[in-house]
TrEMBL record:
One of its GO terms (cellular component) is microtubule. This is Tubulin-like protein CetZ. One of its GO terms (molecular function) is GTPase activity. It comes from the Archaea. HAMAP family: CetZ. Belongs to the CetZ family. It comes from Natronomonas moolapensis (strain DSM 18674 / CECT 7526 / JCM 14361 / 8.8.11). Residues 367-392 are annotated as: Disordered. One of its GO terms (biological process) is microtubule-based process. InterPro entries: CetZ (IPR032907), CetZ_C (IPR048737), FtsZ/CetZ (IPR045061), Tubulin/FtsZ-like_C (IPR037103), Tubulin/FtsZ_GTPase_sf (IPR036525), Tubulin_CS (IPR017975), Tubulin_FtsZ_GTPase (IPR003008). Pfam families: CetZ_C, Tubulin. Keywords: Cell shape, Cytoplasm, GTP-binding, Nucleotide-binding. GTP binds at Q10, A11, G12, G13, K14, G110, T111, G112, E142, N169, N187.
Length: 392
């Protein structure tokens, strides 16, 4: 699937940069056009892969290149003021090559959080291609203001895009290291999941290795639909076509190798079904009740001998049961030199998402608390500056 990607704000820009690195190192061809938009000049300068001419500084007259300071209203203002600048950068793309737009943003800050829904609305008016969002939720311990920003942006972003794909930093946070290192690891997780999904739809990269049942861009677009929230599950397992993988686990699975050391069909089927279970029941990009899914897509990638239709059919039936939805698409994506088999499960249109309710509760508490503090500090300030009336 070929995307016009727009990284909005600091997190959006960094993740876009990582997508570009992934795309060029693997030759997947998923990025048709890439633009970074920010109100902070330093963040734009820190990017490595986004071409200089596609870095758009917005809101200079509002925030003078210093960023929106975690204030989404300012992010929104910057975006409105410079929509034409952003559009000029988008105009450089060959729009006939693009299947969809993807706007990437951290929802807890100011620029991406406030600006992304404005840009999505604008693109909806101009283009027939679907406009998707990739929204990054802050972790719980970032505190009230980030969760309040995210709760507001989550609503307006979800309303303005065709589908909001969500990644929750909270579910993937790593302990111990510096924030920068932690984000680098989290960003790898993001790229692994979403990169694998979008590359699957980019069938030209397959060359002669035609998949048994191809998942193309239109399958992804139909799964994502025209409104809703999406969570993604992922699981992978290393395979060694050279024959070094015939350990205990393989034997227990009842699998075996042929004379060339390749997995036999039974082995491949079991591996696929167990990976799909792990992907669905393990850590999702947004933890949700799987049976609240409206549409699902299942994709299995790996070396051709490790993929088979029986495994995918079995896994698809299992996923239909779990999600209780009839619209479950499935396909494979052969990668001849790949050393792992991976299952990606797309749960689109999910509605039972406790993490979102939790974020909204934190947001309401933060708003009430800041209202209380505002009125308290107003009274306290009056007490402090009042002069000469004390004895009256
Ligand atoms: N996954 C991930 N999340 C990040 C990263 N950097 C920041 N975030 C998240 O994004 C939120 C803040 O968004 P930023 O993108 O830094 O903010 P911004 O849009 O640039 O807005 P301002 O800085 O207020 O102008 C934080 O609360 C984090 O949750 C990153 O590299 N990866």
């Amino acid at each position: 699937m070929k995307l016009a990607m727009i990284g909005f704000g600091q997190a959006g820009g960094k993740i876009l940069d990582r997508f570009l690195e992934y795309d060029s190192s693997r030759g997947t061809g998923i990025i048709g056009h890439a633009i970074a938009v920010n109100s902070a000049k330093a963040d734009l300068m820190g990017l490595d892969y986004v071409p200089n001419e596609n870095r758009v500084l917005i809101g200079q007259s509002v925030v003078k290149g210093h960023g929106a300071g975690t204030e989404p209203d300012l992010g929104e203002k910057c975006a409105r003021e410079d929509l034409e600048e952003i559009q000029s950068a988008i105009d450089k793309m060959v729009s006939s090559e693009i299947d969809a737009f993807l706007i990437i943003a951290g929802l807890g800050g100011g620029t991406g959080s406030g600006g992304s829904p404005i840009l999505a609305d604008h693109l909806q008016r101009l283009y027939v291609e679907p406009i998707y969002g990739l929204g990054i939720l802050p972790s719980r311990d970032e505190g009230g203001i980030y969760n309040r920003n995210a709760a507001r942006s989550f609503q307006s972003f979800a309303e303005s895009v065709d589908n909001l794909l969500v990644f929750d930093n909270d579910a993937f946070k790593t302990g111990g290291e510096s924030i920068g290192e932690g984000y680098a690891e989290i960003n790898d997780e993001i790229i692994t999941r979403f990169g694998a999904l979008f590359s699957a739809g980019e069938v030209e990269a397959l060359g002669d290795n035609v998949a048994e049942s191809v998942v193309d861009a239109s399958e992804i677009i139909n799964t994502l639909g025209e409104h809703g929230i999406t969570s993604i599950g992922y699981a992978s397992e290393p395979v060694d076509p050279g024959g070094g993988n015939s350990g205990l686990l393989d034997r227990l699975r009842g699998g075996s190798k042929d004379e060339n050391g390749f997995s036999t069909a039974g082995d491949a089927t079991n591996r696929i079904t167990s990976l799909v279970r792990k992907a669905t029941l393990g850590k999702l990009t947004l933890q949700c009740e799987v049976d609240s899914t409206e549409r699902a897509l299942l994709l299995v990638s790996g070396p051709p001998d490790a993929l088979n239709r029986k495994g995918i059919d079995k896994a698809r039936k299992w996923l239909e049961d779990q999600t209780s939805c009839m619209e479950v698409r499935a396909g494979d994506y052969p990668l001849p030199n790949e050393k792992k088999v991976a299952a990606i499960v797309v749960l689109a249109g999910v509605t039972d998402v406790p993490r979102v309710k939790d974020m909204q509760r934190m947001a309401i508490e933060a708003e009430e608390r800041s209202e209380e503090l505002r009125s308290q500090s107003k009274d306290n300030l009056e007490d402090l500056i009042q002069y000469g009336d004390d004895e009256e």
